[in-house]
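=== RUN LOG ===
request id: a7f3
mode: sequence -> structure
chains: 1
length: 146
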Amino acid sequence: MDVHEVLRHLPHRYPFLLVDRVIECTPGESLVAIKNVTINEPFFPGHFPHHPVMPGVLILEALAQACGLLTFRTMDVLPDDDTIFYFVGIDNARFKQPVMPGDQMRLEVKYVRSMRGVWKFTGEAKVDGKLAASADIMCAQREMKR
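=== RESULT ===
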C-alpha cells in the first residue's frame, strides 16, 4: 500500500499520520509498515531542541495505526462515517533505543485475537533491524456519535 492507499484506510492526516507505506500484509495475520522519520516532524523542535528524539507515545501511535490498517484489511472494508476504531489499551510497552531524524522505522504488527469488537495485537518498531519499541496493543470498533 502506498501513502494514497494508507490514506484511504486511516482517518489520520498530517501532522498525525505516522505510516508512510505498507510493505507486507497478510489479512488476519500480520502487517509490516514503514515510517520515514525526518527532521521536519512537527514535534522535533520541542523534543528535544538540541537532541531530537521521536516521542515514545508517537512510536506507539505509529504501531497502533499499523494495527488499524491490519484491522481494515482483515475486515476487507474501508472506514466510513459510521464506524471508527479507537486505540483503547496498551500493555507491556518497552523502549529499547531512541528513534531519531533520518531513521526509517519498520512497524511490525501481528493479530492476536478479537472479541466483541476489541482487537488485540503485538507490535514491534525496529530501526536498522534493532528493536526500538514493543507493545501489546488493543483497539475497539465503535459507532461514531454525532
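=== NOTES ===
The mean pLDDT is 94.
The beta strands are 21-26, 30-36, 83-95, 104-115, 118-127, 130-143.
=== END ===
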